[in-house]
Amino acid sequence: MSEVSISVIVPIYMIEAYLPKCIDSILDQSFTDFELILVDNGSPDNCPLICDEYARKDNRIKVIHKEHGQLLSGRKAGLRKAKGKYIAYIDGDDWVDKFYLDILFNLAEVNNSDLVVTGHFREFDGKIETIKPSYAGVFEEKEIKDSILPKAMYNGNFCEHEIATYVWSKLFKRELLNEILFEVPGEIVMGEDAAITYTYLSISKKLTISRIPLYYYRQRHDSILKSIKKTTIEFYRLGLLKKFLEMKLSPFLDKDNLNTQILYYLYSLILVRSGGLIHDASGNIIFNPFLKTKKNSKIIVYSSGSFGQHILSSNSKSNFFQIVKWIDIDFQELNIGGNFVKPISSISNTEFDFLIIATINSSAFKSIKSELVLMGIDPKKIVQINKDKKEIRRLLVQLGFDND
Fold this sequence. Notes:
- It is a single chain.
- With 404 residues, the chain is of the alpha/beta class.
- It folds into three domains: 6-223, Spore Coat Polysaccharide Biosynthesis Protein SpsA, Chain A; 231-282 and 390-398, no CATH class; 290-385, Rossmann fold (3-Layer(aba) Sandwich), CATH 3.40.50.
- The chain is built from twelve helices and 18 strands.
- It has helices spanning 19-27, 47-57, 71-81, 100-110, 141-148, 174-180, 192-202, 231-249, 255-274, 306-318, 362-374, 389-398; strands at residues 6-12, 34-40, 61-65, 86-89, 95-96, 115-124, 127-131, 137-140, 170-173, 206-218, 278-279, 285-287, 298-302, 322-327, 335-336, 339-342, 354-357, 382-383.
- A hairpin with a 2-residue loop joins β6 (115-124) and β7.
- It starts with 5 loop residues before the first strand and ends in a 6-residue tail after the last helix.
- Mean pLDDT is 91; it is low at 224-228.
């Protein structure tokens, strides 16, 4: 028998400014039958002390101090110590609604579900955006295998998932998670959530999707991943992700479907991580995904988020484009390569050749494009990302994803 209903696992590294809010939101839950496992992932700041102080005050808290490793190692360490029937992962710089665990538990128990998926809030510089699954319901094993898993990573629109990759905003059964989590290669750094979520989904017999948003995901400037430094290491790790997903999902999906899902998912990860322009091991640009643009094109970049920052950072090294302006509706005090973010009202059609909307999500792209057109921007100058399957496959082969 489980000692508690839910084990909440929080991997922690270098987030001392945000950690108290996260822990307080968990301890303040209306649902009380839980344990909180704080995994100090070798954090060099005050996080270990904060964890120990909270543990002294509340006996529901267990603390694990371990050597520094990747996020996945923290998630594994927490699961090893967990006693709950269910597992909830929360990132240490995020926080949750007072009724988060209560609603997750009820959704799981009432529907006898192996996996519960909910909506979430995205907080960015004080602004909050609500993000919900496109539909809600309870799904049996046959529907999971026949309808949901074949669109889990790619639902037909580029970089749109049928089931979000994140392990947070979900509730897992501990006994099932134990079957798959420890097989995920520890070297996987990008896409480890996908490796967990989609493999777990493939062995789930019942899924509940709720559109209620209860999890607050904090988008931080200082947490946005740096651009690729060593392409050989990055692509090796993505190769491990590809092999793992192929091995785990091939029993449930036909070859063409699985290859297409993985192809677009890997491409999306490479695009964001590389800043769009993709280099070979020698630093030569071998692929420009922004259709119609060419070397020395005068470019405006829209978005100060992760992809936008990577585009600016990558271009500051290659000088492939002439970046004439960087704009965003979410005005930020950012500076990359001498480019400062400016409001969208600051541009005119005469000062640029093309405008890149720095998002890989098709729906977000359409929404932003329509707003820019309302502001008078020439829609012909707003460029699309190359999504041609043959060209993407050729790129992945060139990068070495066709071999072991």
